[in-house]
Every structure is written in structure tokens, then in C-alpha cells.
Design goal:
- The chain is an alpha/beta fold.
- The chain has helices at about 10-15, 50-60, 70-75, 80-85, 95-105, and strands spanning about 25, 40, 65-70, 90-95, 110, 120-125.
- The chain has a 6-stranded mixed sheet.
């Protein structure tokens, strides 16, 4: 059995398959999936699993070079913006929510959580460990 916190098979396989610059989207329950982009649907009910908990678990195995959030996050969900900032992710970049959705079309996968708060979405861009 794995020693790290990430137990979900699909997520673990995804992280293991990433190369430098590949993108993974972790989103709230309302973020639209994109045609041709695999969807890993973790949502069980409102708030389960939560966005921050899901990001933390993925970060236990994924090397992140930078991340992208919607510029609307701070104004519309300041508590979540604070929690994202507290994660200590490197090199924050912001795009409008519409630009965020367009960029997510190039992701390796979209991970849907049960989060039901606005703009609780992030694109994690894979880095390298060397």
C-alpha cells in the first residue's frame, strides 16, 4: 500500500504521468469540464471533498512550478483566496475566469471536487524535481 496521502488511483496515475509544464485543474463542483479533457470526478456531495483538502493531497505527490487562479477569486471569495495563498504554491498567476476556462482546455485532466464556493479553482503546472 502507498505511504503517501494520495490514495485515489486515477489521481495517482495522473501525477505519475505528468511531464514538465503539464497542467492539472482542480475545480469546484460548478467548473465546466472540457471536451477531450479527462474528468476525474471526486464530488460526493456539497463540500465533500473540499477544494483545499484535494489540492493539499495532490501536492503531496506533485511538483508544482507555478499555479493559476481566476482574478475574480479575491473579490468574490476572499476566504478561499486566503486559504489558497496559505498553501505556499509557487509563482501565482491570475487570469480572468473566462481565460481560466479556456486554458483548462489544454489540461491533462480536470479534477472535480464537491466544493460549492465561487471561483475555487486552480491550475497546477508541473515542475521538475531536479
Amino acid at each position: 500500500m502507498k505511504k503517501t496521502p494520495l490514495l485515489n488511483i486515477a489521481l495517482s496515475q495522473l501525477v505519475a504521468s505528468l511531464g514538465h509544464g503539464d497542467m492539472v485543474v482542480i475545480g469546484d463542483a460548478g467548473l465546466p469540464s472540457q471536451p477531450g479533457v479527462p474528468l476525474i470526478d471526486l464530488a460526493l456531495t456539497h463540500g465533500v471533498p473540499g477544494f483545499i483538502q484535494t489540492v493539499q493531497t495532490v501536492l503531496s505527490e506533485m511538483q508544482v512550478e507555478h499555479h493559476v487562479v481566476a482574478s475574480e477569486l479575491q473579490a468574490n471569495n476572499p476566504a478561499m483566496a486566503q486559504q489558497v495563498a496559505a498553501l505556499g504554491l509557487p509563482d501565482a498567476r491570475q487570469l480572468s475566469h473566462e481565460e481560466f476556462k479556456q486554458l483548462s482546455k489544454r489540461a491533462r485532466a480536470i479534477v472535480r471536487t464537491g466544493e460549492c464556493s465561487p471561483y475555487a479553482n486552480v491550475i497546477l503546472v508541473a515542475g521538475v524535481v531536479f
